[in-house]
Amino acid sequence: MFSIGELSRRTKVKVPTIRYYETVGLLTAPERTEGNQRRYDRAGLQRLSFIRHARDLGFSIEAISSLIELQDHPDRSCQAATDIAAAQLSDVRAKIRRLRALEKELLRITKGCDGEGVSEDCYVLTSLADHELCEREH
Amino acid sequence: MFSIGELSRRTKVKVPTIRYYETVGLLTAPERTEGNQRRYDRAGLQRLSFIRHARDLGFSIEAISSLIELQDHPDRSCQAATDIAAAQLSDVRAKIRRLRALEKELLRITKGCDGEGVSEDCYVLTSLADHELCEREH
DNA sequence: CATAGTATCTATAGCGACTAGAGGTTCAAG
DNA sequence: CTTGAACCTCTAGTCGCTATAGATACTATG
């Protein structure tokens, strides 16, 4: 049996976050000691590790809730779980596309200031002020 | 002179967002009509366009505040502005790196479920449950 | 000029996923 | 048995909005 601090150390999830997960229903309320302190077992540790891992991969709390529910109903869970993961993947890819566009634009803006010429007007500032100067939509 | 709705239409920034920008100090409080409604001039429009553009590029409210302040003090503002933009760029790049790692991992996880073999255990779920299965840190 | 319908006003609360703090209780070591 | 770390609950704050409620103002038509 682990205390909440011990669980925190093992999963690298902060103590208040563990309690937060309990309030939102991601973790089921564990046993308590006489003195009202939480005591977790191995199953609790595994569940929190699962959550931690999924959060690291950017899954929302809601998506993780769904995944956990699927774990408890193993019949035809695989397709549903794969769907959730695939949605997450396409979400990640959309974010990458967007960030790459931003990267390009920011590179252009910051490069404009370099080196030669009198910089009466700061290129960064004028670029931001005038959308017409952009090479692409964003 | 534009009403807040007119300004919203021209900048594509929603009306409550414009008011929000005013409360946090990004926009200076504009003139008011007799009946207490906001009326913006061309300068207000330009400032909001600047903000919109910077937000689109992912600059935080705080960073935009700094940039606006720099606009008002043109002496040696360029270096400072470029620094802010460069910080933003490296932030964007860090996010891209991280998302690419996630993409790879998610791809691996979702692919594992495909096709052949009896799927007694869902690969998505077991992958998330066991960090050891990951190919890289994330 | 009256009225209808839209736009605007303020103030407050909610979103997601935590994080920080106050003020109090319990546990484990010496 | 005492100390001090860890724990408890509760509330509020973070960021950048977004939504709602209830009241007031503007504008177009009859």
Describe this structure in words.
The structure is a homodimer. Chain A is an all-alpha fold and about 140 residues long. Chain A has a domain at about 5-70: Multidrug-efflux Transporter Regulator, Chain: A, Domain 2 (Orthogonal Bundle). Chain A contains six helices and two strands; from the N terminus they run H-H-E-E-H-H-H-H. In chain A, strands 1-2 form a two-stranded antiparallel ribbon. In chain A, a hairpin with a 5-residue loop joins strand 1 (about 30) and strand 2. The longest helix of chain A is centred in the C-terminal third of the chain and has 36 residues, at about 75-110. The N and C termini of chain A lie far apart (about 50 Å). The mean pLDDT of chain A is about 90. Chains A and B meet through helix 3, helix 4, helix 5 and helix 6 of A and helix 3, helix 4, helix 5 and helix 6 of B. The first copy, chain A, binds a DNA duplex (30 and 30 nucleotides) through helix 2.
Which structural class is indicated by helix and strand composition of chain A?
Answer: mainly alpha
Q: What are the low-pLDDT stretches of chain A, counting only 5+ consecutive residues below 50?
A: none
CATH class of one domain in chain A: Mainly Alpha
Strand % of chain A is under 5%
Task: Report strand order across the widest sheet of chain A.
Answer: 1-2
Largest chain interface and its two residue counts?
A-B, 44 and 44 residues
